[in-house]
Specification:
This protein is mostly helical and 360 residues long. 83% of the residues lie in helices and 0% in strands. It contains 11 helices and no strands. The longest helix has 66 residues, at 294-359. The chain is globular, with a radius of gyration of 26 Å. The chain starts with a helix and ends with a helix.
């Protein structure tokens, strides 16, 4: 009875964590799309989000220090600039280009194109030797690429500029997540907790994105009536509140991902991400008026099958590695116990020989 109650509790908890993740992940996609319809400064919006995430990460770290009584990790400047900076720059460009693309493309095209990030993650995982090349990876790449082609083929809501932005963001995202994995796996840095990672990334992300913002939106924003040339206080407050809500959603997304992974597994997050894409497309067709033909749905299904195959293979190989590691550990422990037993027997035989010599 207790086992059934414990299993039911785990199922309910996992479902609650997945829904919590969906609220922030789907919510920020639709919210940013809605906001950019009237606020045409996506790079400035991203800078505000980064500032809010840094402030909330700082407050969270202070709360964790107070709760645990232990100081949080603080990197040295050498490690910060050499190891964190590449992750920060690629992350800033990924998020900035993704938000920028909302000015041009629909949510369905954004969601589908963003799914192609798996291709680039696989590519850079092979480059950095995080994955072993095999036939299954080629099948995954072909499924995702053909699904993306079918989705964008003869699309009436297709925009080349926005599509290139998301595709470039996906390409940079492949570098970003590969470097992030390498960064968080370095135990000596102490950035295994994503709150600490978010805290260290935001300042460099802000500095990396600021020149691009200045070049593309700086002059236009400085003369805009949205912020700097307001005649009344209410439009300014409205802009600040809407931007702050987006920043809170961005922080909540990172926190919900961390909570889901820490309480379940990264496999649960990956599987949840597949169903999240389906939910996003369904909501986009009903709420935003995105048109989905049978060819688009077929392309999306093929793409999802490729992503699902990749997730399943990663789970399978991780189990094999874990099983091999347990067998190796067990074998080493047996060899060690046999070695100790042999040493004990040798010592006993030496003691017996010594006693015999004394008696003689």
């Amino acid at each position: 009875m207790a086992c059934h109650v414990h299993f039911l509790f785990r199922v309910v908890r996992t479902a609650g964590l997945v829904l919590f993740y969906y609220v922030f992940s789907i919510g920020i996609t639709f919210y940013n799309k809605w906001l950019t319809k009237d606020f045409h400064y996506p790079l400035f919006m991203t800078l505000v989000h980064l500032t809010i995430i840094f402030c909330l990460s700082t407050l969270t770290r202070l709360a964790m220090e107070w709760w645990t009584g232990k100081p949080r990790v603080m990197l040295k400047w050498k490690d910060y600039l050499s190891k964190v900076a590449p992750v920060a720059m690629t992350t800033a460009l990924d998020i900035g280009l993704s938000n920028w693309s909302f000015l041009f493309i629909t949510i369905s095209l954004y969601t589908m194109t963003k799914s192609s990030a798996v291709l680039f993650i696989l590519f850079f995982s092979l480059v950095f030797k995080l994955e072993e090349p095999n036939l299954y990876l080629i099948v995954v790449v072909l499924l995702i690429a053909s699904g993306l082609f079918m989705f964008t083929f003869e699309s009436t809501q297709f925009n080349l500029e926005g599509f290139i932005m998301v595709l470039l963001a996906s390409f940079i995202g492949g570098i970003r997540w590969t470097l992030t994995q390498l960064l968080m796996q370095k135990a000596e840095l102490g950035l295994q907790n994503p709150i600490d990672t978010m805290y260290h990334l935001q300042p460099l992300m802000f500095l990396g994105l600021f020149p691009l913002f200045t070049f593309n939106e700086g002059l236009s924003l400085s003369t805009s009536e949205k912020l700097f040339r307001v005649d009344e206080l209410s439009p300014l407050l409205y802009s600040l509140v809407t931007l702050s809500v987006g920043g809170s959603l961005a922080f909540g997304l990172g926190f919900s991902e961390f909570l889901l992974v820490s309480k379940t597994s990264s496999l649960t997050l990956s599987i949840s991400g597949i169903f999240k894409e389906v939910c996003t497309l369904l909501l986009a067709t009903h709420l935003m008026g995105d048109r989905m033909s049978w060819l688009k749905w077929l392309g999306f299904a093929i793409c999802v099958s490729g992503i699902s195959l990749h997730v399943g293979l990663k789970a399978y190989y991780s189990r094999i590695r874990a099983h091999s590691l347990r067998q190796l550990t067990f074998r080493n422990s047996l060899e060690l116990s046999e070695l100790l037993q042999n040493e004990d027997q040798e010592e006993d035989s030496e003691d017996d020989n010594g006693k015999t010599d004394i008696l003689l």
